[in-house]
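As a warm-up, study this chain.
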Amino acid sequence: MFFIPTGTDAPTYYRPIGTILLILANIGCFILTGGGDGVWTDTFMLGYNGFSPGSGGASLAIFGLMAVAVIWAPRNEISFVGVFVFMFIVRTFTFEVTIMTESGWYLGTNLLFAWLGDFTVCSEMLHLLGAAVGGSIGWIMLNQDWVDCEGWDIASVWNGKPESQGYFKSYMDRQNPAKSDAADRLISTEKHNKTQKIAKKFRKLLAEGDLAGALDRRRKLSLLQADDLLTRDDLHNLIKQLVEDNQTASAIPILEEFLIRFPESSTRHRLKLVELHLKRPYRPREAQQLLTGLSKDSLTETERQHAEKLTKRVNQMISDGVYEIA
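Now compare it with the structure written out below.
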């Protein structure tokens, strides 16, 4: 009997090219090192012949990744096809187990055999070493907020509040409807704490000039429907840095959000949005609509002159028939 993993319920956020190249690189290294015991291995070891000479193999990295998966997504499931073969009889069946169960089995059996071998240097000890290193890296990345497990990490699961928050609430409803309000309050508190943490990280990244990180945190706040945590100054500073960095495509939607949220003090930002629409890809008609929405009476002399110059440019581009991508 043997088991073949066929899939997982975890969402995929990347193209498989990275995994494929990693597999090919691993095979290439295996061939070059003569299976971990060839001339290249001897060269890399520089003549070392002490406590544990030789290379560890791919299993250390595999157990390291397994430990990372346990920390980041213990409740996600792996689908298997089981194949039973007896003489000429072949039977297949399918089943699912959680990453925690699957990894716990491998780690547990390796720990058992390492213990039976008095924890001497052996394959099982090396596997456990790989899991310890990988688990440590995964835990550090989780605590430093370098990875977003969306509430499915082992700490959230251990505390009974995975972002399976939907799962947690439905579980509370099933067990005791009277506790539903308590579950709602817990979910609300958890969401508040999480969004506050993301907003704080946004400001830190923006102050450090990490625009990619700041944009990613803003996206997370938007997904959590907590855009209002970013203040007028937060959006203004983000827009300013994006414009200075010539990231027009990223600056435009944030400027549009600024105009909607802070219409009473948005004249300068409206004019800046007009300017961006007059750059590639050209949007002169959208720029024209923005200029039409200006309240001429509220403009300062400088803003009025700027608006007049932009109006002339917009009219000229429309007159010239500048092609506008829909």
